[in-house]
Specification:
The chain is mainly α. It has five helices and no strands. Helix content is 75%, strand content 0%. It is a multi-pass membrane protein.
Amino acid sequence: MSLRDWARRLKRDLVAVYHAARDPRTPWAARVLGLAVVAYALSPIDLIPDVIPVLGLLDDVILVPLGLLLVIRLIPPHVLAEHRANAARDERLPRSRAAALAIVAVWIASGMAAVWLVWR
């Protein structure tokens, strides 16, 4: 399998998980985790910024696929198959402003905690 095929499957699965997380047939734990993984993948802001050499890209290459793998295992197979088929037809990824705000909040909280620890 080529890198391009892997990336296409990853994108298709992101879209499928997004829709499956909004499906009432999906267990609540899979829904919450699925929305978190998709929000992180779609957020323009990463926990580790891409400008940090190696680590910045490594989080996208490792965290997103591992998160997807976990969520896919939690979603009932028939629900996932239905949403994968739909995602194969329409691979448009939604944008998540809420996820961007959550990541910014995490960065601000981390910065404030670091400043507090240094001043303490």
